[in-house]
What does this fold into?
Amino acid sequence: MKKLYGVIGCPIQQTMSPLIHNDAFLHLGMDAYYHAFHVEPKDLETAVKGMKALGVSGFNVTIPHKEAIIPMLDEVDEHALKIGAVNTVVHKNGILKGYNTDGPGYVQALKRVTTTNDKRMLIIGAGGAARAIIYSLVQEPGVTADILNRTPGKAISLIEEFSFHNRCRAVTMEEAVRSLPTYDVVVQTTSVGMHPLVEETPISLSSLKKNAVVSDIIYNPLETKLLKEARLKGAVVQNGVQMFAYQAALAFQHWTGNVPDVDRMETLVTKRLGGTSC
Ligand code: ATR
It folds into this structure.
């Protein structure tokens, strides 16, 4: 029988997850279908019970349900529990188990453009996306990170909560700008620069280190103002498409045990966003 997968979120019409997962099912010859479900916050619990009752094999969870779904699941992976957010649910033997593939997906994507060992990083943001990314990045050997957030208290409490004092510190904008020539990698996790606020940047990169890597998790636009500035300064740049593809590929593996073609996912998303892919 055809297996059903999906994504729940609100809003959801913009999601590109059905595009890449349905293509992967076709490409791998699997009898499965992935559908986007619009679920209002007030209906989340009913929707989760419905997924279980209907025998949906697995689903993604996106904004604004990633945190709220945790108490509604039968089991939650320890890393997802620490991050406090689930983006992937596996339904097996009547058990709904939650995982977070955002952090590991980000690290896999970053490794496409740089090694991570012993890298000194600036991470911009301390929200939900940053939590997952920082949690995974700091597991990498020798990574140290300065965290810059508009609300500094959130960066401080994130470091305290994860006990990352020996690897991370919260920095002010002045400190981040002063230290810019020392960072190997700059990771942008906020919504600054995202459509429609495409003219905004979270920091000026004027003193960026030569050969630095600048990675922005935004993929709409494909090149944020920050990435354009970084590219013009000769940096290695990465937009959010690869992170999106890798987190999806990891979810796909959790559900099916099969490894999808990540490059294919990346190409599909880039084309859908009006870009060209190499
Ligand atoms: P997400 O799950 O996408 O990370 P979030 O948890 O709401 O969303 O976090 C948004 C992040 O973007 C935060 O780091 C936020 O900074 P604050 O903690 O100070 O709110 C950051 N952010 C959003 N809009 C911003 C802006 N205009 N300038 C600077 N930072 C901004």
Observations:
- The radius of gyration is 19 Å.
- The longest strand covers residues 3-9.
